[in-house]
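Researcher: Here's the sequence for the chain we discussed earlier.
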Amino acid sequence: MIRSKKVISVILALTMIGLSACAPADKAGSADSYIVLVDLYSGKESPEVGLNTQVADDLYSQVNGRTGEFVDTDEPEPTLGFRGFLVTPADDALPTLRITQTDVYTINGADRRRLADPEGHYYKLVLDGISGDLPQEVLSALP
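Model: Thanks. This is the structure I predict for it:
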């Protein structure tokens, strides 16, 4: 009886090790918390990809450091073609960001604020963070 309990314990331990080896890795910097909509298409669904948590945290940290430079505004008028990256965090405490080549818009409920970014720093930051997950067709359509 004692021997069969040891065998069962060993089998259970090996099973648990096997199951954990088959489970997806919980890697640091996963993209589960931030989604980027590449607001590109009018007649079909625009692509969505995850944004690495480290990149997104850096983005939000930089934007939060410049809150005094934001001005109240409306979102840009919809146009054909690329309208920006729409970064949506899972955390409701953070605003959604619309990032164009020259501006960053914060969207928090009905409040809209704009930060001028003439060098496109934030656009490049997001593009670098998601370009590996976008099809070539989408990349070639981006400015």
